[in-house]
């Protein structure tokens, strides 16, 4: 196996099944250190699953998932706990703790993992909030925030422990164009100013391609195309064009695999 020092995450020949159903078959993926990597693909194809595999919450049936050259699926529980501290995941539902203020939400992982004197913790939290433009909202409760602000507060919490990798699951979903622009800019800024490796899973092609150094498209249980944003835009594969142009139907089927429609309808009750 070639071990790369330039890729923070390296997936080789990885297969993952849900029951008998393959989600990934012999898939390969490299996520370069310090870059923004976009993972795109149709709904239900396995993008969130991929993030959970990288985070060690799910185990593949075969293959390797290297994080900084450590094979995640084979790590002991305690080692995985250590490695996971270096990664952060921001899920779409990235819920804040509703009974804690914005300040305390961001302070939570710091209090949980580090034993910092209160004045240092205070300043660290304010610095994280400053980086997402919410220092002024430190004392607000999550219920008082707009959707976009809540997402930014969740981002401040996700970077509280200075992870090396941050994985965003659909960061733009449900945002108005201005909030989307703010989030695009924030991802780009935290990548550039903190040197954070970012993986962004999304359907929002234009937004993500504007900041991604590399972009991959998942379909048919593996990566069907990848490269720089520009290379992907020039790709002539009809499946890639279908996805990038947002066409509802094409070589990548719109429907989740199902029984014959007519048979299902006349078959009556299930
Ligand atoms: N806990 C589970 N048990 C069984 N199947 C699951 C489970 N979670 C997800 N799946 C299936 O795995 C497949 C991949 O799901 P996943 O959430 O990774 O897709 P996705 O590409 O992130 O979709 P979307 O873009 O719609 O969020 C889906 O078909 C889903 O039905």
TrEMBL record:
Query: Which is a Pfam family this sequence falls into?
Result: ABC_tran
Superkingdom field: Bacteria
Record keyword ATP-binding present = yes
- SMART domains on file: AAA (SM00382)
The membrane spanning regions, by residue number, are none
Q: Which terms does the record give in the GO molecular function aspect?
A: ATP binding; ATP hydrolysis activity
Identify the InterPro entries for this entry.
Answer: AAA+_ATPase, ABC_transporter-like_ATP-bd, ABC_transporter-like_CS, P-loop_NTPase
All copies of the ABC transporter domain together span: 9-245
Q: What are the alphabetically sorted keywords of the record?
A: ATP-binding, Nucleotide-binding, Transport
Family annotation (CDD domains)? ABC_Org_Solvent_Resistant (cd03261)
Record's protein name: Phospholipid/cholesterol/gamma-HCH transport system ATP-binding protein
Q: Which organism is it from?
A: Orbus hercynius
Species classification = Bacteria, Pseudomonadati, Pseudomonadota, Gammaproteobacteria, Orbales
